[in-house]
Amino acid sequence: MLSERRLEVLRAIVQDYVGTEEPVGSKALTERHRLGVSPATVRNDMAVLEDEGYIAQPHTSAGRIPTDKGYRLFVDKLAGVKPLSTAERRAIQNFLDGAVDLDDVVGRTVRLLAQLTRQVAVVQYPSLTRSSVRHVELLSLAPARIMLVLITDTGRVEQRLIDCAAPVGETVLADLRARLNSRVVGRRFTDVPPLVQDLPDSFELDDRPAVAGVLATLLETLVEEKEERIMLGGAANLTRFNHDFPLTIRPVLEALEEQMVLLKLLGEATDSTMTVRIGHENFHEGLNSTSVVAVGYGSGDEAVAKLGVVGPTRMDYPGTMGAVRAVARYVGQILAES
Amino acid sequence: MLSERRLEVLRAIVQDYVGTEEPVGSKALTERHRLGVSPATVRNDMAVLEDEGYIAQPHTSAGRIPTDKGYRLFVDKLAGVKPLSTAERRAIQNFLDGAVDLDDVVGRTVRLLAQLTRQVAVVQYPSLTRSSVRHVELLSLAPARIMLVLITDTGRVEQRLIDCAAPVGETVLADLRARLNSRVVGRRFTDVPPLVQDLPDSFELDDRPAVAGVLATLLETLVEEKEERIMLGGAANLTRFNHDFPLTIRPVLEALEEQMVLLKLLGEATDSTMTVRIGHENFHEGLNSTSVVAVGYGSGDEAVAKLGVVGPTRMDYPGTMGAVRAVARYVGQILAES
DNA sequence: GCTGGCACTCGAAACGAGGGAGTGCCAGGC
DNA sequence: GCCTGGCACTCCCTCGTTTCGAGTGCCAGC
């Protein structure tokens, strides 16, 4: 177990390194922080911290920088979540109010988060699997062609084209639409499958294939993982850490273009606790020197999706966590109102 | 007027510079191209080309690089559009087939273009103002709250929340829905306003405000420029020209995050001719060393929107133009089918 | 267990020489 | 009149050397 002072030294190192982006030495540390001991003592502490793997030196005779393990300790034990100023809170509110639809909400959120944290923002659309049905619409585009439109309680709209083997009459379609809605409106999407299973049975034999086709597409839409949509913003902020630049920005940009990677970054937890994934904890080559701060958001207690930011491991964790949490709360409110 | 050979020299310079990314000198030129003259002659030609502003040298005693004016001449007079190989064509087809909805089409297109050209791809969603109405849906969410869903013939779906001053009955809503659809389905969005202007008059006095409100939101949705949606992809390709890197990538990324800038980049022309905007022709600081190749696409002859790529002025114009044109054609086909 | 002192390390910046690619210009030849 | 070979000149780039300084580890002393 590390002594109190050594933890204090680690905290000071993290803070200074985040601020200056340069390895921090023992002398500079004692000058910038009131540690009450001499540089020599700090050097001894640093040697211990290095042995334990919390800090490292880029090369002999340079200052120290925190390791992933060091940041982890910092986040878990040494740092809190910095609340936003009232001015910032007001800015968030102003910015998010006035969104006209879900796309707009998500778009504004992503820009807001990017601006607030000066990092790359990632916002997931409300997940279908965690939403409820507000309305199902069936539109006949051509005799054997139907458009399925799904509207969720979070305002999300999904559409699908369905090619039927045989033409479907307007009356059948209207009938199906009515029955479908009476059964599923207000229900969670995950509960839908058993509710519609026997629906084809109540139709004329001739119409059953078409009805079954529509239902199949409906269920497919619910299940497909690619239906998890994600919006990204603030990529320009990547250029701010122009340290070892070209080497590091490339793989990050590439990773951020992959839907699947983004989803994994945000994490699987379905509650709204905040997760901080640091460096190698992301298990993705190329994101080894980036951290992710993510949190669930939703209209109620339960999270319908996640949002967060991606930045260098050398980031202002307390500030970032504060911003992410605050934005998630406001987005939840907005969603609850609509 | 430049002599034939001098044009040939310019072409050679552009080609070599695009290939090597390094200023090209007279000796290297004669070695790599069969110009039939000596380096000294080429030097004289280069001096003339420089006087005319087609090429420049970064500093005395360095090779020459093309100026924007030089690229312009190259694109206009010296280069054609390189057709894609059949393998590439097949790849496009395979990649775009199997898209399930409009979002999917646009998403696939953006990835395809980025991959094909190895540059940043930009795809605009079919513009509302150039589409026709397929269906208008009105859903009652709460007594005084309506969701308006607009579906276009290109498969685009837009939704809007409408807060009415007073509750609107289901029958009124159904009535309005029916009348609205019978009037506007199949019509161009730009033609809609006069078609619905007198619609409130046919309703009970009590219901007119609500009806008018719905119509107002509908018209607003059509007009608003921000409804021009755009998808972006391949940002990681920016890192490929890591020449004067950090200086140049930052403003480009920033510019690409602004919806308005992107729209302007794609250009205003509504037909499907290809436009190439080179360097300063973009009139946007930060995009001074990037070029944009854009073209309209649509299901018929007329363009419903634009797509294109953004890359360094030092790009392979013939190849890029070929890829952009080919992709636009395929997307048009896909759209026509749906 | 803390501190001051000291020798040592090693990267970053500054300096300077050399090489080389490229240029402009000129005189001569077809 | 246009092309060509020759030549002197210009600068950038590379590379080795040097210097400088921040930082370290270790040790003896309090």
UniProtKB/TrEMBL annotation, chains A, B:
Keywords: Repressor, Stress response, Transcription, Transcription regulation. GO terms for molecular function: DNA binding. Pfam families: HrcA (PF01628). InterPro entries: GAF-like_dom_sf, HrcA, HrcA_C, WH-like_DNA-bd_sf, WH_DNA-bd_sf, WHTH_transcript_rep_HrcA_IDD. GO terms for biological process: negative regulation of DNA-templated transcription. Residues 103-321 form the Heat-inducible transcription repressor HrcA C-terminal domain. Signal peptide: none annotated. SUPFAM superfamilies: GAF domain-like, Winged helix' DNA-binding domain. Negative regulator of class I heat shock genes (grpE-dnaK-dnaJ and groELS operons). Prevents heat-shock induction of these operons. Belongs to the HrcA family. NCBIfam families: hrcA. HAMAP family: HrcA. This is Heat-inducible transcription repressor HrcA.
